[in-house]
TrEMBL record:
PANTHER family: BLUE COPPER PROTEIN, UCLACYANIN 1. This is Phytocyanin domain-containing protein. GO terms for molecular function: electron transfer activity; metal ion binding. The lineage of its organism: Eukaryota, Viridiplantae, Streptophyta, Embryophyta, Tracheophyta. GO terms for cellular component: plasma membrane. Residues 174-186, 198-211 have a biased composition (Low complexity).
């Protein structure tokens, strides 16, 4: 529908332009006319006729205008008349491009110079506007999440390829026994070591008796305190 309107507008515009640019040519003018005294061929060669222009013939009652084919034009014979005009003023529109031929039908006037050949040229039509093509609507591109980088099994910069990382193991009982000579099966205690062990055993044996002695003193003090408080209460 929009294309049809555009073509109609173009056609109307072209018609209006042609009407505005159309020219009216008075044959033999402005100083002459359609008669035997005007050099009509010289006048015609100085004009340029376009489609849409008009030819105006002005003549006396003794003359007329006859459109003929080229053969009759060359022989000045009106045997095959295309169109005849009379009346003193004739306007002929040039509606199509090409050559046209006109003579006066009165005997002897064509041979006296009352003949006209014109070549109508086509007008240059304005260029047809190309239809407007709208660019395609761009669709939003979905965002693709970037995958997380995978853990690489490549060796660290400080580790030589092919070399395994040393594993730290806890010390074995054999290592602790080797560090402590007393735990070794082949260890023989000396006299000083035996005296040291005896003193250690004695101090550890005295510890329970001293604890019992302190506990008995504590209970005795509590008992005496309770008795003292009962005596004081009876005294009051």
């Amino acid at each position: 529908m929009a294309m049809l309107r555009a073509l109609m507008s173009l056609a109307i515009s072209s018609m209006l332009i042609n009407l505005a640019m159309a020219a009216n040519y008075t044959v033999g003018g402005p100083n002459g006319g359609w008669d035997t005294s005007t050099n009509i061929q010289t006048w015609a060669s100085s004009q340029s006729f376009l489609v849409g222009d008009n030819l105006i013939f002005q003549y006396a009652p003794s003359h007329d205008v006859v459109e003929v084919p080229k053969a009759d034009y060359d022989s000045c014979q009106a045997r095959n008349r295309i169109q005849s005009y009379s009346g003193g003023t004739t306007t002929i529109p040039l509606s199509s491009p090409g050559k046209r031929y006109f003579i006066c039908g009165t005997i002897g006037h064509c041979s006296q110079g009352m003949k006209l050949q014109i070549n109508t040229l086509a007008t240059s039509a304005p260029p047809t506007p190309s239809p407007t093509i709208q660019p395609p609507t761009s669709e939003a591109t979905p965002l693709v999440p970037t995958p997380a980088p995978e853990k690489s099994d490549a060796p660290s910069p400080t580790q030589t390829p092919g070399e395994s990382t040393p594993t730290v193991l806890p010390p074995s009982p054999s290592d602790s026994s080797s560090e402590d000579p007393s735990l070794s099966p082949s260890f023989t205690p000396t006299e000083s070591d035996q005296s040291h062990q005896t003193s250690s055993t004695g101090s550890s044996a005295e510890t329970p008796s001293s604890s019992a002695h302190k506990q008995g003193s504590f209970l005795f003090n509590i008992t005496m305190g309770v008795i003292f408080i009962m005596i004081m209460l009876q005294a009051y």
